[in-house]
């Protein structure tokens, strides 16, 4: 079974618990912090991947490191350790956030631009694409990409809207080549 399918099962379970307790925002915040810790702390990952460390030692360590998170989040981490799937935590967080956003009509977009977008530009993009996609809110993660000559490229889920100068030049080139045949 693929790791993303497994991760989604854990995310669904935690999402349903959060819906029942009306604490989805808290769970998302905790999961984002945990995800950040796992992404940035190689020693944590090395410890949890070490086959010489027992499951009980790993669980005790997780209880100490993440003692301030809710019991539901902690139980999810402990279950991932029991099932030897703690390496799926990044996928669990991603799946949970996607479900939460979808349930509230929120989408996340990665916007690639040659420079940091201003607040006004960000707001414009949010308004235009929220209407286009019939969603309530569009959250934008702006990434500066110096290889873009001008314009922007937006990725929302599997959809890519490419308005970069480079892409426009390629389209123009294709039209010219086709017209000359």
Briefly characterize the structure.
This protein has 181 residues and is α+β, with helices and mostly antiparallel strands.
In the CATH hierarchy, what is the architecture of the largest domain at level 2?
A: Orthogonal Bundle
> Kindly, what is the distance between the CA atoms of the first and last residues, rounded to a whole number of angstroms?
50 Å
CATH topology of the largest domain: Peroxidase, domain 1
Overall spatial form: elongated
| Estimated radius of gyration | 21 Å
Strand arrangement within the widest β-sheet reads: 2-1-3-4
Keywords:
single chain, 181 residues, alpha+beta, Peroxidase, domain 1, 2 domains, four-stranded mixed sheet, 8 helices, 14% strand, elongated, transport, proton-transporting ATP synthase activity, rotational mechanism, ATPase_OSCP/dsu
Explained architecture:
This is ATP synthase subunit delta. With 181 residues, this protein is of the alpha+beta class. The protein has 2 domains: 3-101, Peroxidase, domain 1, CATH 1.10.520; 106-179, no CATH class. It contains 8 helices and 4 strands. It has helices at 3-21, 24-40, 42-49, 55-65, 71-82, 89-103, 119-132, 165-179, and strands at residues 106-113, 137-144, 152-156, 159-162. Strands 2-1-3-4 form a 4-stranded mixed beta sheet, with helices on both faces. The longest helix has 19 residues, at 3-21.
């Amino acid at each position: 079974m693929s790791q993303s399918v497994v991760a989604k099962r854990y995310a669904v379970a935690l999402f349903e618990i959060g819906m029942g307790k009306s604490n989805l925002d808290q769970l998302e915040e905790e999961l984002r912090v945990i995800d950040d810790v796992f992404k940035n702390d190689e020693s944590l990952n090395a410890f949890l991947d070490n086959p010489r460390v027992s499951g009980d030692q790993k669980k005790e360590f997780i209880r100490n490191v993440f003692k301030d998170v809710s019991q539901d989040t902690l139980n999810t981490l402990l279950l991932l350790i029991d099932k030897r799937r703690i390496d799926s935590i990044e996928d669990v967080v991603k799946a949970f956030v996607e479900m939460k956003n979808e349930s509230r009509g929120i989408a996340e977009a990665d916007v690639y631009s040659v420079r940091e977008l201003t607040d006004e530009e960000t707001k414009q993009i949010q308004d235009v694409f929220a209407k286009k996609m019939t969603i309530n809110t569009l959250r934008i993660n702006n990434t500066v990409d110096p290889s873009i000559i001008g314009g922007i490229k937006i990725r929302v889920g599997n959809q890519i809207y490419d308005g970069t100068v480079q892409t426009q030049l390629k389209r123009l080139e294709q039209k010219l080549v086709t017209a000359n045949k």
